Amino acid sequence: MGSHGTLNTITPCAACKLLRRRCAEECPFSPYFSPHEPQKFASVHKVFGASNVSKMLMEVPENQRADAASSLVYEANVRLRDPVYGCMGAISALQQQVQSLQAEINAVRAEILKHKCREANLIPSSSHLALLSSGAVSIAAPPPMPLPQPTTAADYNTISDENVTYTLDNKYYLDN
């Protein structure tokens, strides 16, 4: 008893409250499971069990335990929402979303290229557009390559804008 007739008690953490036990000062759960958020420990306890959570937290360096507890809460909540796939279901959904967005980006880039070619009065073939929209070919243009060096001085006179053809991969060759 304290000096005024009251007990000096500690507010039990969410874990001790759920497990209906007294929360000791050295409780391994109290720093990570606040009494104000009991659902967090309830999820973790339901998926992993209190004993396993305690062991996992004790195996992690003290400066990383808060992050470990947060990860356990996240994983437990995902596992409760998706009991079959858990986190892998969330990861797979995100990977599919990334692939879909990459395909959309490639389609937009192909459309941009098509419009740029129209402006320059060049019309790419349908096979070029199919390659671009499939993502098999990147549209990011590399820096221009130097013209091939002719073997004789007379060859310089044959190079003009009319007889140099540029391809989609920024390689060029002479039309002879």
Automatic annotation (TrEMBL):
The keyword Phosphoprotein does not apply. Residues 91-118 form a coiled coil. Belongs to the LOB domain-containing protein family. This is LOB domain-containing protein. Residues 11-112 form the LOB domain. Keywords: Coiled coil. The keyword DNA damage does not apply.
